[in-house]
Amino acid sequence: MLDHRLRQPRRTMPDTQGYKDRIHAGRELARELRRRLGPGGQEDLLVLGLPRGGVPVAFEVAQALGAELDVLLVRKLGLPNQEEYAMGAIGSGGVRVLQPGVPGLMGVTQEQVEEVTRRELVELERRDRRYRGGRAAPRIAGRCVIVVDDGIATGATMMAALQVLRRQAPARLVVAAPVGAPDTVGLLGNEADEVVCPLAPPRFQAVGQFYRTFGQTGDEEVQDLLAQAWAKPGAQDENNRKERT
Fold first, then answer.
1. Which residues pair with 148 in a beta bridge?
2. Long-range contacts of 195-199, Cβ-Cβ distance < 8 Å, separation of 24 or more
3. What is the tens place of the pLDDT at every residue in 202-233?
4. Rg over CA atoms, the chain
5. Is-contact 32 197, C-beta < 8 A?
6. CA dihedral angle for residue 51, residue 30, residue 187, residue 121, rounded to 10 degrees
7. Bridge-based pairing state of the strands 172-176 and 45-49
8. Are 85 and 156 contacting, i.e. CB atoms less than 8 angstroms apart?
């Protein structure tokens, strides 16, 4: 089990340093997670990568911890005509979370909520088919779930992910990222049971600032990494078991 005393992000590297690439970042993050989990704390783990850039990092974490890997697809529900402001989010498995006061907030009607939901659901399902095919969604309830991204800036996507996952009753919900803005990391600590972020420098400007190679992750790379993870011995048996239960 994670140590409740270790609540604050630790700066384990100087502000001017960072990671070679997402592979290096994932391995460093896995090392910190292993230390924080401790002996006996790595059972029944589920690692969820946020597409697209979070998946290469999550792949390394899952490999190092011997954990199941999957993706967590979330879509923000933006206010009509003000899409940058979230009135809620939807996630894999048909989960929808609405902000308090919605519908009604800023004059948003129930019909508008449903229209935005339908539109975003189409895109979420398209991505789900592309990344996961017909594979059943992983079991969340009762597990230690580690949500991984390649970095945390505003935290909007991660916050939506946490809201979606809370509805599915995980035993413990952990946010993990190689680097993050200190203020955002602190806010996420109010929503997650634990935040593991080895590098949270005060002079944070952008996630890419702390990677020497930070190219865009494509859909093909996400698919390839998931295929590798799911092809390991026992992965399909575990998936079939979850379908039966």
1. 49, 176
2. 195/7, 195/9, 196/9, 196/29, 196/32, 196/33, 196/36, 197/9, 197/152, 198/9, 198/10, 198/11, 198/12, 198/13, 198/28, 198/29, 198/32, 199/9, 199/11, 199/12, 199/13, 199/18
3. 989 999 999 999 999 999 999 999 999 999 75
4. 18
5. no
6. 20
7. unpaired
8. no
| Through-space distance between the first and last CA atoms of the chain, rounded to whole angstroms | 25
Instruction: Please tell me whether the overall predicted TM-score, pTM, comes out greater than 0.85 for this model.
Output: no
Structure tokens at 226: 């998931």
- CA 103 to chain CA mean position, Å: 27
Backbone angles phi, psi at 210, to 5 degrees: -110, 20
| Neighbour count for residue 70 (Cβ, 10 Å) | 27
User: 56-60, 89-93, 163-167, 193-197: lowest mean pLDDT where?
Assistant: 89-93
Residues paired with residue 87 on neighbouring β-strands, in sequence order: none
CA gap 174, 221 in Å, rounded: 24
pLDDT in tens, 132-147: 888 888 999 999 999 9
